[in-house]
Structure formats: structure tokens, C-alpha cells
């Protein structure tokens, strides 16, 4: 027994925090999740595309009510006419309905989680977490406050992508459910077109804003070259994606850092949901075991090497912008299909 209010306080009710909360809930721990937002799943923070292989490997949900689209075919292109098309003949990826996905994690995945919304954390010191109105104490603190948090290591601007997406009215495509275009107009990132529903699509861009460019302007300029992605806008969202090297250290005394706070993002695809879910889960399992070092060990042996593979590939891909990505695509074209599926399908 300790004199603290909780076994663990989780700061942030995004994917990492909710995944951690689910483990603590299942294991009967006394915990609370604090988040400044007003509603779970709002604002939308993600396109929601994930690899089915990884969803199953790390135990993410795949319930039909949270899935907008299934991906069985994808096309990687450059705006210099290089492309690789892949039809897998089966589902290899999912596109979550992000709001429903986070709501599901918060109240159905492991039962109803103990979450306090409208609560901005202003300080963390030892076992004490301070909010605008209260203080809370806990044995462990799980840090899940997202990209560029004041409580984490900040990345330099040239390692953070800005991302912007519009959901647009558009008929379903009968060729690909996912198209990525690499272009020097989007350095370090890409333009995307994902299926959402039968009559809408998710169209977006992410890139390093090296010259301070605005993502909406970049997207609108690009669609003049590829009018097939045009459509009437239904809603928009924008946020940052950390694309720096995954951190080496993820625990500090009683604090366990997760998700975007430790750059658990696959640099090649800028996908961070899987890394956030996995790190949240492992951090909470370590809390359950009473040994936070277990999380650092998992990070060192499995999670960080997985992220580093993508980090190194991304650096190679972007050495000379779209030109080098085009070259890699040409190289990939001569790969046997089995290898292509392994390399691109498992991303
Ligand atoms: C436009 C866009 C598209 C993307 N598309 C994909 C995709 O298709 N697939 C994919 O895998 N990844 C995608 N990503 C990346 C992915 O969304 C993130 O990596 C992931 O959401 C990170 O989860 P997280 O839990 O670490 O952080 P977040 O989801 O950012 O959660 C952090 C939470 O902490 C709360 N918080 C922050 N500070 C405080 C505070 N002081 N007090 C209280 N609460 C606080 C925030 O309100 C927030 O709810 C995309 C990102 C963007 C921006």
C-alpha cells in the first residue's frame, strides 16, 4: 500500500493513453486518465490507416463499427511518373473512423475507462500531477500527451511534418483504396488519397515545412496536377507528426513516455497509431508488473528496432527527394511479388 491516490495517472487520452488505460482497467489497477480535450475522439487527429498484420500482432481493435474502409489494393506513385501498384486480393489494411475508434477504446475495448476530460495538466513533479484546479498523486505516471508536448523532448522543426487532410465528397474508386504520391512539393512526406466511404475520400498532405509553406496551399497546388483528387470538402483536420529518430530512453524515474512523445512513428508512412497503441500497452504492462524497466527492455529489443528500420529507410528514400523514391520504385518493380508484398504490405 502507498499513500498515493492512484497506481498510475495517464496524461493524454489519445491512442497511447487509451491503450495504456485498457491494460490497467483489465488488470484491476487504480488509475485515472487526464485530458484537456472536451470529447474523446474530437478533434480528429488521424486518417486512421493501419496495417492489418500489425493490428493483429499488437491487439488493436478491428470491430466493424469502427472501420470506414478496408484496404486490399494500393498504389505508390511519384509525380515524375514512377509507380508501383499492388493488388493483394485480401484485406491488408484498415481505415478507422477515428472518432468511433477512440470512443470504442475508451468505453468498450476493455470496459469503461476512468477518464477525466476538460482537465489540462500544468505540471508533473515526482509523484504529483498538477492540473489547473487540482493535484493528483500516483506511483507511476504514463506520459501520453502527443507530439511536441511541453512535457517531452521537442524536435527541431525540420523533423516534424505538418499534416492537413480534407474529407471530400467523391465516389469510391474501383482501382485503389489507398494512393500515396511522393513529390518534391511535399519534402519528407507525401500526398494521399484514402477510401472513407462509398461517397467520400480522405485527401491530404504531410511534409517538412522548410520554407514555412501552408499545407492547404500545397495540397491545392498539387491537385491542379492531379484533378482526380478534387472534390467538395466535407471537413478538415490538421496537426503535426514527429518524424525524428525514436528516443533511446523511454522511462525517467516513475515516468513512462509513450506514443508521439517518444517518436513512435513509422517514418516511411508517417503512421503513428500502431506505435502509440503498442507503447501505451507495454508501458501499462510494466506498471502492472511493478517494474517500469520492463517497458524500456521491450522498447530496446522490439519496438525501437522496428521504428529504426523505417527511420533508416525514410532517410534513404528522401535523400534526393522524389527522384530517389522513383529509383527505389523502379528497383522494387523487379522484386518478386512475394517480396514486394512483404516489404510494402507489412508497412
Ligand atoms: C493529419 C494526420 C494524419 C495521420 N494519419 C495517420 C494514419 O493514417 N495512420 C497512422 O497510423 N497514424 C497517422 N497519423 C499519426 C497518428 O495520428 C499519431 O501518431 C497518433 O495519434 C499519436 O497518438 P498519441 O496517443 O501519442 O498522441 P495524441 O493522439 O496526440 O494524444 C495526445 C493527447 O494528449 C492530450 N494532451 C496533450 N497535452 C495535454 C495536457 N497538458 N493536459 C492534458 N491532456 C493533454 C491531447 O488533448 C490528446 O488527446 C496521422 C497524424 C496526422 C496529424
Topology:
Elements: E1 6-11, H1 15-26, E2 31-34, E3 49-51, H2 52-58, E4 67-71, E5 73-78, E6 83-87, E7 93-96, H3 98-107, E8 115-116, E9 121-125, E10 128-131, E11 135-143, E12 160-169, E13 178-182, E14 190-197, E15 200-207, H4 215-225, E16 232-242, E17 251-252, E18 255-257, H5 273-289, H6 293-317, H7 321-333, H8 337-345
Parallel strand pairs: 1-2, 1-11, 2-8, 5-13, 11-18
Antiparallel strand pairs: 3-7, 4-7, 5-6, 9-10, 10-11, 12-15, 12-16, 13-14, 14-15, 17-18
Helix pairs in contact: 1-5, 5-6
The structure holds flavin-adenine dinucleotide.
Flavin-adenine dinucleotide (FAD) is lined by residues 11-17, 34-37, 45-50, 120-121, 144-146, 149, 163, 165, 204, 237, 239, 241, 259-260, 265, 271-274, 276.
Query: Would you identify the CATH architecture of the domain at 6-44 and 97-156 and 247-317?
Result: 3-Layer(bba) Sandwich
Which structural class is indicated by helix and strand composition?
alpha/beta
Identify low-pLDDT runs.
Answer: none
Dominant shape = globular
Q: Specify the number of helices.
A: 8
Number of strand segments: 18
> What fold name stands as the CATH topology of the domain at 6-44 and 97-156 and 247-317?
FAD/NAD(P)-binding domain
- Rounded mean pLDDT is 93
Bound molecules: flavin-adenine dinucleotide
What this model shows, in words?
The chain has 347 residues and is of the alpha/beta class. The protein is built from 8 helices and 18 strands. The strands form 3 sheets. Strands 1, 2, 8, 9, 10, 11, 17 and 18 form an 8-stranded mixed beta sheet that branches. The chain has a 7-stranded mixed beta sheet with strand order 6-5-13-14-15-12-16, sandwiched between helices. A 3-stranded antiparallel beta sheet has the order 3-7-4. Strand 10 (128-131) and strand 11 (135-143) form a beta hairpin. Helix 5 (273-289) runs antiparallel to helix 6 (293-317). The longest helix has 25 residues, at 293-317. Bound molecules: flavin-adenine dinucleotide.
